[in-house]
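Dear Dr. L.,

I hope this message finds you well. Following up on our conversation about the binding site, I have prepared a predicted three-dimensional model of the protein together with pyridoxal-5'-phosphate. For your records, I am including the exact sequence and ligand specification that went into the calculation, followed by the structure tokens. Please feel free to forward this to your student if that is useful.
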Amino acid sequence: MKLSKFGEKFTSHSGILSLMDDLGNALADNDHMIMMGGGNPAHIPEVEDIFQQRLQRIVDSQTEFTRFIGTYDPPAGDQAFCRELAAMLKRRFGWNLTERNICLTHGSQTAFFMLFNMFGGEDSNGRNRRIQLPMAPEYIGYTDSGIAEDLFVAGKPDIEEIDAHTFKYHVNFSNVTVNENTAAFCVSRPTNPTGNVLTDQEIETLDSLAKHHDIPLIIDGAYGLPFPELIFTDATPYWDEHVILCLSLSKLGLPALRTGIVIASEEVISAVSGISAITSLAPNSAGCMMVSDMVRDDSIISLSQKIIRPWYEERLRFAQQVLHDQLGSLPWAMHKPEGAMFLWLWFKDLPVSSLELYERLKKRGVLVVSGHYFFPGMNEEWPHKNECLRVTYTRDQATVQKGITIIAEEVRKLYGQ
Ligand SMILES: Cc1ncc(COP(=O)(O)O)c(C=O)c1O
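The resulting structure of the complex is given below.
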């Protein structure tokens, strides 16, 4: 088969594909594997009940059902839904939005593909423009999404050591160099994999830099504000004309309905919906129909705050306690878990690479993710890149206890303790 450059790039080795394959194969080979590697949202019974009832109402109404399965929405998504969402965001946060500032996509992953390639890559002056990731480690899902090679640039963060076993990354603004080749900033808030939540101050500084250089600041709110609000610290929802806020219904509990939401200037929204029309005609109608009532009466926010966030927070507190009990005085630290659904563990001066540790854990029946995957755009050598693991803490208590105990045993062996 003869492929184009695009064909070659997108069919050759991709980090996310090999990671997903490896996790999938390991699970298929061993039914008893303890899965602490995935990013699937938890199946929270109360949330599933709400969606099941909503789905039943749709199925019971001939008009709604026909829309659910049988009608193409416009390329930007159902306009009545976008209008309701704009009204809710205006009501709650005072953002000056109309439906022309919002479009829907097939999951937010697709939105990032469109946005990154819309701004980054070769421009009409022959300049190779890149997406700057001010907070590394960053989401692995960005890594291979550029049509151009080397689309991303990232520098090291500052590390604040909060106590013996807790640290936090901060944006190191001296590493955020902006020049004529900088196409946009992008940050996930909360950050996958670390659970970091950029402070309001960091977001404001990035936004003023973005404004000053007239480039967009893309904020990936897949776990963030205002929904599903997997945030356990103080953080303010943020949007303005230079910001492209990407939300998703996935972590609210609807990943299979593939619904991403882009909130941006009218110019950006019309460009994204234009690309959507070419690549997919119309977004999925099912996701927005499932949550339209919740947007109309703001209950999407109370659901996030009263049911979803506390559910994750309870699991987090348990996993944190087990970590302290099991890892004790070993040279380990955890990123302050401020959001999302992961623990980011740092084993200082680890005698083997994090990938080797991942392999050893896989042999012991525990699946985690090696941290080295999460540094898109950072080419410089840094031992820290090979000393971290991402551990998903959302399983039941017995499983989390067992998984962390095995992690601690393997790590203790490595340190010879
Ligand atoms: C940080 C982050 N952004 C975006 C996505 C994409 O999510 P979706 O395409 O399901 O909206 C994910 C998925 O896990 C993620 O972790």
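In brief: Residues 71-297 form a domain with the Aspartate Aminotransferase; domain 2 fold (CATH 3.40.640.10).

With kind regards,
A. P.
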